[in-house]
Design goal:
This protein is mainly alpha-helical. Helix content is 63%, strand content 0%. Helix 3 crosses helix 5 and helix 3 packs antiparallel against helix 6.
């Protein structure tokens, strides 16, 4: 990945994945396995799942979340860094219905981005 992920970034990604999919899935997200596509897919899932107004105010909102550009990856990483803090501290509760529906929609696409 062009943008270097810190250990804290990986911890936040794991915390988000644990909240959505459980510890067994979260443990597969490592510094060596996470790609730019992983970062973008997780950000897309967050925007679709969590109260968008809370996260959209924290970072710039690009027009096309799925367009594979460096700008989108940088935006996605900023979103994960901001949104991951409360997940890391177990301060976020994702509604069961939203978690079930959205996590089911994104799991395979996120996991296929891993190395």
């Amino acid at each position: 990945m062009d943008s270097q992920l810190s250990a804290e970034d990986i911890d936040k990604i794991r915390a988000i994945m644990k909240a959505f999919y459980g510890q067994s899935v979260a443990s597969g997200f490592t510094e060596s396995s996470v790609t730019e596509e992983t970062v973008r897919a997780i950000a897309h899932m967050l925007v679709e799942t969590v109260d968008c107004s809370r996260w959209v105010d924290a970072v710039p909102s690009p027009q096309d979340l799925l367009r594979p550009t460096r700008r989108i990856t940088e935006w996605a990483l900023r979103l994960i860094r901001e949104a991951g803090k409360p997940f890391l501290q177990n301060e976020v509760t994702v509604n069961w219905l939203c978690r079930t529906v959205r996590s089911g929609q994104f799991r395979s696409s996120i996991e296929t981005t891993l190395r």
